[in-house]
Input
Amino acid sequence: MADAKVIPFDDDRSRTGAVQRPPRRRSAGSRRKGTEPGPVREVEPLPTAAGAQDDVAVTSEEQPPERPRAEGGLERRIAGGLGFLRRRLTGDYEIDDFGYDEELTDQVLMSLLRPVYEKYFRVDVKGIENIPSDGGALIVANHSGTLPLDGLMMQVAVHDNHPADRHLRLLAADLVFMLPVINELARKLGHTLACAEDAERLLGQGEVVGVMPEGFKGIGKPFSERYKLQRFGRGGFVSTALRQGVPIIPCSIVGAEEIYPMIGNAKTLARVLGFPYFPLTPTFPWLGPLGAIPLPTKWTIQFGEPILTDGYPPEAAEDPMLMFNLTDQVREQIQHTLYKLLVQRRSVFF
Amino acid sequence: MGKVVLVTGVARRLGGRFVRRIQRDPQVDRVVAVDAVPPEHHLGGADFIQADIRQPTIARVLAETAADTVVHMDVTGTALGSGSRTTVKETNVIGTMQLLGACQKSPAVKRLVVKSSTNVYGSAPRDPAVFTETTPPKSLPSGGFAKDTVEVEGYVRGFARRRPDVAVCVLRFANILGPTADTPLASYFSLPVLPTVFGYDPRLQFVHEDDVIEVLRIASHEPERGTLNSGTFNIAGDGVLLLSQCSRRLGRPTVPLLLPAVTWAGSLVRTLGMTDFSPEQIRLLTNGRVVATDQMRETLGFSPKYTTPETFADFAHSRGPGLLPPEAVAGAVDRIAALPFPGGGHPPTQSAN
Output
């Protein structure tokens, strides 16, 4: 972590964790900017970006690895973009039972989130190798930051860093699916309702599922309680993982707590609007929409050692004591890693 | 063997098709087709008996014909011709009660097949993404056809309890589409411009009418080896389509409206009697509904010929092109692609919607 202190503002990706891979797909916008900073970026993605073009040759607009090839790359990108446009406009694409639109997520939504991930929060990812390359896994993370940006950043982290192209399927609160526009985007990003049925179905299909068991208690806690894990619901995620025999991967996210320091909670207003809380931050309602801009904190996402669950007998999912113990174990591990990361952190913003 | 099959709701096209199909099965001797109004289509060699299932006469029909298999298809969302919602509800609920009462009295009845709908699950944002046969609905449908089906299924469960010797099969069909289907959703998709709820893109599942006929046939015969055809089954084609995909594949533009406006407009249209844009349909078009079909495949042993996208393609083909046919849109995009110098890069970001 010592070298993290001298990371240039833009280039922390090159040092993240053990498994290292260049960004998979980039939006046209981020690419154009990417050519400006100079040689550092140009050299780095060369070997695998070229390799990726061989197997993804279809239509996805890949980043042309070098400037000399930019002419052909641009044409190919335009062709790819038009092919994409054509498929979108004629409805010729597929979604899964949960409404996950892989193409839209990969080509558009991830490209929109990536600048936030790379440039704004400069997310450091550690321990990505703890996520298995195949089969189901349940990632359990802490939840903070008033708005669930941490979930989205975790999704980008898995999407962009995992060598086996895994997609994180997040479990979201029911409020997400009641809000117009939000619910549509959430479904298309592959999120689904946090309930045992959906989680088990996804894990049964061998997906990587992300859950934040603290829920609203975690995301809506006051700034003074930052990095103090709240109760982990009723531990339903443990019984779900036990029933499917998938490993539980604890995940600690540092940096999300400070994006909107919540110093107050307008409970009456929240009740009127039907939200679980209505945050008051030093900026939020006072500066209007400007106050809704998160603080540019520096994030670290660490995926911890998996906790295996396939060694337990099938009836273990019905054993409340075991469930509480496992829940505590997961919680302790996340809390512990949080403290460790906080000690290592030099500053909130760098 | 000599089976006598009694089919209700034959005045509808689906019922008529089923009657014509089941007669061709060798184990069927006689098909008795029942409805309150005479059908416009022919019924092959079936005996049509004009009887209203809301009246006790249905008991006499059942006793006289000594039917051993009853296929109850008269559970429908829309009125035939110019019936009102009240008539439909009465036919659905009171009709089912009368029919089940008659079945209970008839010792000949050995098998009962009921056409239900996945509407019983309702459609709410708190519901799991995929319903299985055992998922309890989070919010019971408050009215309309969905409530009818819930009540019908309740009576059928009661009947199954009282007559354990009768094999009861409840088939919960997803939205039925096809070249001749006259379901509310089919008429919705026939609108030149599709009103949608702003900010929601529901997931929809369809089942082709050919598959409906086939699965009803499977349910009304003896089960094949290794399968079981009594119980409750979700019936739907594979895959899911979003409403936005449907509209693009149909080539019909959408008009997103705010949810309150849709509800209001729906009630206005209903009052004027123009189309049956019912509240539960608005909820379907808001939250969508997807059901699991594992039971249908594994227990019932039926795999549909048409997937959801294929069903929709067949339906779209039968309806003719809309205002923005997909071919024309694709052609327009191709023409842009063929331009010698497309004005700068075309970031795909702009095509998000």
